[in-house]
Design goal:
The structure is a single chain. The chain is mainly alpha-helical. Among the domains are: 90-271, no CATH class; 312-334 and 345-381 and 559-630, no CATH class. Helix content is 56%, strand content 6%. The strands form 2 sheets. Strands 3-1-4 form a 3-stranded antiparallel sheet. A two-stranded parallel ribbon has the order 2-5.
Length: 646
């Protein structure tokens, strides 16, 4: 600091000297032993009256050497918490600070961590906090400032307030007080006999896009009806202390009103400044990634230098796997349009998952977001179709039955598909489920839908069996088979209508004023998957047989989709961690804009980059190993046969 002051003074004096202005330096009457701040100010001020004792610039440089800087004297230091344990200026301006503190705290009263039935240590630290806040001590002001305040835009849905996380956990105060950031859940209920309060409540909660309560799980779908409110409190206060003090404070303002607020504070949502400690799981995972990465480099070296080695090692060759990942060569018997169809559904799945993730983020215009999604032209579909591992495991039985006994197999598979469709309709109707996210959907209903229908393989069989039939049909077609013109146009018409029925049919359920009807939900869950897949099935058949070469077929058959197919599984795995990592990094409320939020190029780029890395390090190498292991016995068998012939 002292060196900086000296250099600054020199350059300032150079400027004055070049302007031919008289410069005043410490006069001979100065008896100070150090170069103080007052001296600097006096040096830099022009003396227009007394010119008898002015130094030349050369004399100035020489004179500066006679003065020393007290480097031990601390003017201000922000990296020494002990300096800020109390306001050092309070003794100089006690009356002014007291007056200003009273005025500020009357306008915006501070949260009292010691209110209600809290622990003794929490109460003691709360008293110290209030004492230092009244003195405008910096650490206490930061704790006060970091706590959420009532914002503007409440009727636009701006109810979730995250305060200032970094400011709070950075607090280090008197007597070992440290800042602790707690995120409390508040649930606001109003007197149902008051239509005025009910309407305001509807705006606050953005037309009830979701309905939830305190007991609903909030890890996958947000507790949309709850209000998130940040509290900065001393670390000595437990989650129970925070709940008690906050409940005590809220009750003072809501007593004898039409409002009732219940709250919950989870200990897992109370955080202090974290210390970097690597867990055993983190170390083990890091070692795994490093090992695989080194293995890929070693394999790439052997592959590039053509050094003889095991094919299992070469399965990890980075060079070989990059060429394989970005290869545009089609394997024999490939159905070209399926890669484009897979890309489209993967993209829609990505948008669906992103749509769910953004509900965790606080928006200053959340009510507008809900109204925007409730326009008649905007649908909020969720995905319904997928192939689980269990279905893949039973597929050999289905295919073998159809291959060995085509008629019996067709009857059995058709019956299973019909039963699966009936199951979806029946369970959805009886248990009031819904795959379509409509306004007023409860969190419990969504989880029941997942438990009783969405995650059950028996409810996914219909579309899967349709795919088995399509594969069998294409496999057994005679060479150069072409569909007739009548069949072609009939298929396009029927499949297009079925697709549009699945896409547009449930649009009524996207309205803000929609009232749940189990018949609508059951029909959608039972028949929408069939309608959605019908058009894609017909595209695959017409393209593979060469019966139709319309523009849609050309788009889905683009060779670039071969690459997206190879990374599609990794994209599915990585999108969830990235979405929710970004949600966890949210510090403040955002402003909702559909295109800006959904088309986050940085986020999409991160998903693609990590997906490519995972595909190169894990997916492709293990596919290579599988192919090598499965082909090896066949290779030996052929050698044996040829040797016998000889």
């Amino acid at each position: 600091m002292g060196s900086f002051v000296r250099i600054w003074a020199i350059f300032s004096l150079i400027g004055l000297s070049r302007a031919e202005s008289p410069v005043e330096i410490l006069t001979s009457s100065s008896s100070l032993g150090t170069f103080e701040e007052e001296d600097i100010l006096r040096v830099l001020s022009r003396n227009k009256t007394d010119t008898t004792k002015n130094f030349t610039f050369v004399e100035l440089i020489s004179s500066l050497g006679n003065y020393t800087i007290d480097t031990e004297k601390v003017i201000w230091s922000d990296d020494r918490p002990e300096v800020h344990h109390t306001n050092p200026h309070y003794e100089d301006f006690p009356e002014k600070i007291d007056f200003e503190a009273r005025r500020l705290l009357q306008i915006l009263p501070p949260y009292d961590p010691g209110a209600g039935g809290v622990s003794a240590e929490c109460k003691r630290h709360a008293d110290i906090f209030h004492e230092e806040l009244a003195k405008f001590t910096l650490w206490a002001l930061k704790m006060y400032d970091a706590t959420a305040k009532v914002p503007s835009g409440l009727l636009s849905g701006n109810v979730n307030q995250f305060g200032d996380f970094d400011e709070c956990v950075g607090v280090e105060g008197k007597n070992g007080i440290r800042g602790q950031y707690c995120l409390a859940y508040l649930q606001l209920d109003v007197d149902q006999s008051r239509p005025d309060l009910k309407y305001l409540h509807r705006l606050l909660h953005s037309h009830y896009a979701f309905r939830s309560n305190m007991t609903d799980p909030g890890h996958r779908v947000p507790r949309f009806s709850n209000i998130n409110w940040a509290i900065c409190t001393p670390a000595s206060c437990t989650a129970q202390d925070v709940k008690a003090s906050l409940q005590h404070t809220i009750s003072k303002y809501t007593a004898h009103t039409g409002l009732k607020i219940s709250l919950q504070v989870d200990q897992n949502l109370c955080q202090v400044r974290p210390e970097l400690v690597l867990s055993k799981a983190t170390v083990a995972t890091s070692l795994l990634f490093v090992t695989v990465f080194v293995l890929t480099l070693v394999a790439a070296f052997y592959d590039h230098c053509k050094i003889p080695t095991s094919e299992l090692l070469l399965s990890f060759s980075l060079k070989r796997n990059i060429l394989k990942l970005f290869s545009l060569e089609r394997p024999q018997g490939d159905i070209a349009s399926l890669h484009g169809i897979r890309f489209l559904n993967s993209a829609l799945l990505l948008v669906s998952h992103k749509s769910m993730a953004i509900f965790f983020i606080p928006y200053v215009n959340r009510t507008y977001m809900s109204e925007f999604l409730g326009k008649p032209w905007c649908l909020t579909h969720t995905h319904h179709i997928g192939i689980d591992t269990q279905l893949f495991a039973i597929s050999p039985v289905l295919v073998l039955l159809l291959y060995k006994k085509p008629k019996i197999g067709a009857i059995v598979l058709g019956t299973i598909a019909l039963i699966s469709t009936i199951l979806r309709f029946y369970v959805t109707y009886v248990k009031d489920l819904n795959n379509y996210v409509y306004y007023g959907t409860s969190i419990r209903q969504l989880f029941n839908t997942a438990d009783y229908s969405y995650t059950l393989p028996s409810h996914r069989l219909t579309v899967y069996i349709i795919g088995v039939f399509a594969g069998y049909f294409l496999r057994n077609l005679p060479e150069n088979f072409k569909l007739g013109t009548t069949t072609l146009y009939t298929g396009w018409t029927v499949c297009s209508l079925m697709f549009l029925a699945a896409l547009i049919g449930p649009s009524k359920m996207g309205s803000i004023d929609y009232v749940y009807d189990p018949i609508h939900a059951a029909a959608y869950n039972a028949f929408a998957p069939i309608g959605w897949c019908s058009l894609f099935l017909w595209i695959a058949i017409t393209q593979h047989t060469g019966s139709s070469n319309i523009f849609l077929n050309k788009i889905f058959s683009w060779r670039g989709f071969l690459v997206t197919t190879r990374i599609s599984y990794a994209v599915y795995l990585t999108q969830f961690p990235i979405f929710f990592f970004n949600v966890g990094q949210t510090r403040t409320a955002d402003h909702y804009e559909f295109l800006r939020i959904m088309l986050n190029l940085k986020e999409i780029g991160g998903i693609l980059l990590i997906s490519i890395v995972l595909t190169l390090l894990f997916d492709t190498p293990f596919q290579n190993m599988r192919n090598y292991i499965l082909k090896k016995p066949v290779y030996k068998k052929n050698i044996t046969k040829s040797s016998k012939v000889e």
